[in-house]
Amino acid sequence: MKSKLFALTALLMVMAEPAPAADIVDMALVGTWKLEWQHAGLFWAIRSDGVYRMHGPGAAARQLGKIEAKQGRFSMKAPFWMDSGPYKLSNADTLVITGQLGPGTWKRVWTPTKTGSKEPAGPGACGLLAADEVAQVLRAPVTGGQDPRAGEGGCMFRSQLGSLDRVSIGIRQNTPGFFQNNRRSKGESIVDVSGVGDQAYAELVAGDNLGRLQFLRRDLWVTIEAGLNPQATMDDLPYLVELSRAADRRLGGFSLPGPSDSARKRMEAFEKAKAGGWKGRLPAGKSIPPQKGPKPFKGW
Predict the structure, then answer these.
(1) I need a labelling partner for 13 at 20 to 30 A (CA). Which of 4, 163, 190, 201 fits?
(2) 53: helix, coil or strand?
């Protein structure tokens, strides 16, 4: 019963569009800010729905919480941290906020903009997402390019404000039944996503932390994953869904290139071994290193 209730709650979150919440957060504060402090770079990303992320050097600087800010006063709450006090905008890009640690001056380093001004033009999966679309998830200016860690022809977008924040997108041909089998193997640790592709789901890891979002359109299998600091949660799912919808819209004219020489050789070797009676055992002298599961989330 608990899992069904969680799934229903998650589905409602997915169906909801990310929307401004002017009654919660002063829209002039929405964006990403950097603390003016000579010893380190501390960044504070504030969303219109009241979710904020703070990240900087060391684990103690990482926060994921909720903020209310209006009419010159703010209150914020995160695991192991609460604060409140006055704030003032000296100008559109300078925020002075006074809390438990005294006054601090923050400079704006990223402002949300309307997406779709530039269409993606990169090769492979880089042609499915535009940098300004990915920036809405990472809350930062981004750079992107092909990266083998996202799979053959995959693309990796990285935040210019933090080396740990990234979004990867990969695309591959779906062998009939593979996508469905992969979905079934996840058990109850998934959330079905509507309005994306022919089928779509997001993975949950270590509680409500958000893993990959995968969808199928015809015979194309697309995987999108957001690596955020602190880790992505269900609060980030509507933004990842919007990103997947943008990629889905561009799949109409997309076709995968033929396999590379290395991929072709691997497939030929596999078919040759299978024809010779190979049963899936490793060649002599080879071993599989022990696999470690995800570490449980313990907070900051």
Answers:
(1) 163
(2) strand
**pLDDT score recorded for residue 286:** 45
Total count of domains within the chain: 2
**What are residue 69's DSSP bridge partners?**
25, 74
Do 148 and 228 lie in one domain? The reply is: yes
Question: How many C-beta atoms surround the C-beta of residue 116 within 10 A?
Answer: 10
Q: Which amino acid is at 257?
A: P
**How distant is the alpha carbon of residue 16 from its chain centre?**
17
**Residue 265, pLDDT score:** 67
Higher pLDDT, 265 or 176: 176
Candidate from 122-131, 200-209, 241-250, 283-292 with smallest mean pLDDT: 283-292
Predicted pLDDT at 51: 96
The verdict on 90 and 151 lying in the same domain is no
Same domain? For 70 and 150 the reply is no
pTM to 2 decimal places: 0.76
| pLDDT, tens digit (0-9, with 9 covering 90-100), for 161-190 | 987 899 999 999 998 889 999 999 888 889
Distance between CA atoms of residues 25 and 49, nearest Å: 7
Share of the chain above pLDDT 70, in %: 74
CB distance 70 to 25 below 8 Å: yes
Has residue 89 been placed in a domain?
A: yes
Co-location of 185 and 67 in the same domain: no
Residue 5 CA neighbour count, 13 Å, CB half? 2
How far is 210 from 225, CA to CA, in rounded Å? Answer: 9
Q: Is 3 within a domain? A: no
What is the domain extent for residue 84?
20-110
Angle at 266 between CA 265 and CA 267, to 5 degrees: 90
**Quick check: helix, strand or coil at residue 96?**
strand
